[in-house]
Amino acid sequence: MIETIQWTPDGVVMIDQTRLPREEKYVTCTSYQQVAEAIRSMVIRGAPAIGVAAAMGIALGMQQADSSNAFETICETLAATRPTAVNLFWAIDRMRRVYSEMRARPIQEIRARLIAEAQQIRLEDIAINECIGRNGADLIPDGKTVLTHCNAGALATAGYGTALGVIRAAVASGKRIDVFADETRPFLQGARLTIWELQHDRIPATLITDNMAGHFLHSGRIGCVIVGADRIAANGDVANKIGTYSVAVLAKENQVPFYVAAPVSTLDLKIACGDQIPIEQRAAAEVTHVQGVAVAPEGTAVANPAFDVTPHRYVTAIITERGVARPPYSESLPKLVQ
Ligand code: MRU
């Protein structure tokens, strides 16, 4: 199994996703500031994975803090890393609840309880993904190609994956599936991470550039699209990696089902619709350069939103660990959190 992130006596150990697939290198974060920087620089990325990292960052920060007054500063530092994936804030809130229950206890006990909670979040995430996989496997057509965008696999979670978890479960159930992975410019999560993961599991995978998706969706070869999510609003609008919206529109145009796989912790039912989801803007160099090599003239003006919002009308179903939600989402999503 691919180990994305682990708590160890030396610190929080993560596989460095900026170096994959060239190098399988693990980094050890020995302070909460280093965990925050790892999230910001995308050494670790993917909504559930950054939630686990934030929880472990809080546990690590409190190990080293002189007094329990440091707790809020640590939480705020980690919360300021990336704005879109709600799992980050969900994990921080969960750690805050544990801390407020333990507040009056001796610092050693608080520290031990925070470490245990962070480890629990990691283990639960793996179990949740396996459950999402079981709930979604039936939706994947046998003998067809599945198109995915970005990386919603083991690397984006504590293990197994959401969208790739459904693909893994469908393959384990005996279905003959091959995967088309969009390369996912500009950060190339599809080319670098999804293909690497699928090769690891010997699941047949073909890399396409993002602008080929429409061609293949029209060809009749793609049986369904499945992607992950960073935040899902109460009406079912889905924020996910930039480019997801285009794929969803092309899927509907060609009558190909478009599925979203995500844990319930990705639901943000306080937000009525996708327009209210904050979209992270990242550095221009991610667009002007590919793996450090300039592909645009110096001084080029750049826009680099890291996510887009797919309106709920393009989403065929949302697969969670608590079941599969179908439209109307304003009725089906609240039932999952009751
Ligand atoms: O910018 P990233 O790589 O963190 O974006 C990741 C995605 O958009 C994933 O699809 C999403 O977080 C779901 S991961 C299970």
Can you tell me about this structure?
By secondary structure, the protein is α/β, with parallel strands linked by helices. It folds into two domains: 126 residues, translation initiation factor eif-2b, domain 1 (Four Helix Bundle (Hemerythrin (Met), subunit A), Up-down Bundle); 203 residues, Rossmann fold, CATH 3.40.50.10470. Helix content is 40%, strand content 18%. The protein is built from eleven helices and 16 strands. Strands 6-5-4-7-10-15-16 form a seven-stranded mixed sheet, sandwiched between helices. Strand 5, helix 7 and strand 6 form a beta-alpha-beta unit. Helix 2 packs antiparallel against helix 3 and helix 4 runs antiparallel to helix 5. The two termini are 33 Å apart. 48% of the residues are buried. The model has no long low-confidence stretch (mean pLDDT 97). The structure holds 5-S-methyl-1-O-phosphono-5-thio-D-ribulose. 5-S-methyl-1-O-phosphono-5-thio-D-ribulose binds next to helix 2 and strand 9.
Give me a quick take on this structure.
With 338 residues, the protein is of the alpha/beta class. It is 40% helix and 18% strand. The protein starts with a strand and ends with a helix.
